[in-house]
Amino acid sequence: MNANTTIHSAPSLLTLQGVHTHIGAYHILHGVDLEVPAGQVTMLLGRNGAGKSTTLRTIMGLWQASLGRIAFDGQQISASSPREPAQTPEIAQRGIAYVPENMGIFADLSVAENLLLAARGARRLSELDGQRLDWLFGHFPALKKFWLYPAGKLSGGQKQMLAIARALIEPRRLLLIDEPSKGLAPAIILNLIEALRELKRGGAQGQAPTTVLLVEQNFMVARALGDRVAVMDNGRVVHAGAMQALAEDETLQQRLLGLSLAAHQ
């Protein structure tokens, strides 16, 4: 961890301590230490193959940590033994939603049916929260237009919007999102940024603020949304601090990421 890391004032909602993950014979995470402050957006950046997506999947229990501790709201959610099964359903029930890079939508179901499946509190379309739907349609109008279309017939960008909307259909305490802007048109990216800002402020129907851990390669999005940033390299977090400080330090960007954020605006 960077020795110059500052202490953030918000309490951590999610904490990873010394997390290792093996996938088959491959050792992917090598002792990840990460803190995600409550009510903030934490960006998880790094070169391709650094371990960012594996970190999200390990948090959700899709891949099991072989060593270390993962705690949500002070309670351990990682399996205590390598022989224990993944706990993804239990983890989701705590109010954690995950948007994978591959979107995770059901191609044969309609947009409406995809959202219904993601809404734990509804068993039929008429039971979906109308105000919440209107809020989603305001940011992603294509979902309303293609409400009864099979999700598999949507464009790549529309599928990504649907995947994000599935995570937002109900209030969540923590969102884990893997490259949400991938495949989206610039105008939709701006809508996504505003939607996540509203969630962080608790502005969606006056709900409590939502905490976000976001993997992103679009640095305009990272700079616009991030309060905190953690940079990964070779399966470890090698820097953590304020997003603004990284965005303003091109030398640090080059050292940690091998590029300048200014060149990707």
UniProtKB/TrEMBL annotation:
PROSITE patterns: ABC_TRANSPORTER_1, ABC_TRANSPORTER_2. GO terms for biological process: L-amino acid transport. The keyword Transport applies. The keyword Cell membrane applies. Transmembrane segments: none annotated. InterPro entries: AAA+_ATPase (IPR003593), ABC_transporter-like_ATP-bd (IPR003439), ABC_transporter-like_CS (IPR017871), BCAA_Transport_ATP-bd_LivF (IPR052156), P-loop_NTPase (IPR027417). One of its GO terms (molecular function) is branched-chain amino acid transmembrane transporter activity. Signal peptide: none annotated. Residues 14-259 form the ABC transporter domain. Keywords: Amino-acid transport, ATP-binding, Cell membrane, Membrane, Nucleotide-binding, Transport. Coiled coil: none annotated. Belongs to the ABC transporter superfamily. PANTHER family: ABC TRANSPORTER ATP-BINDING PROTEIN (PTHR43820:SF2), HIGH-AFFINITY BRANCHED-CHAIN AMINO ACID TRANSPORT ATP-BINDING PROTEIN LIVF (PTHR43820). This is ABC transporter ATP-binding protein.
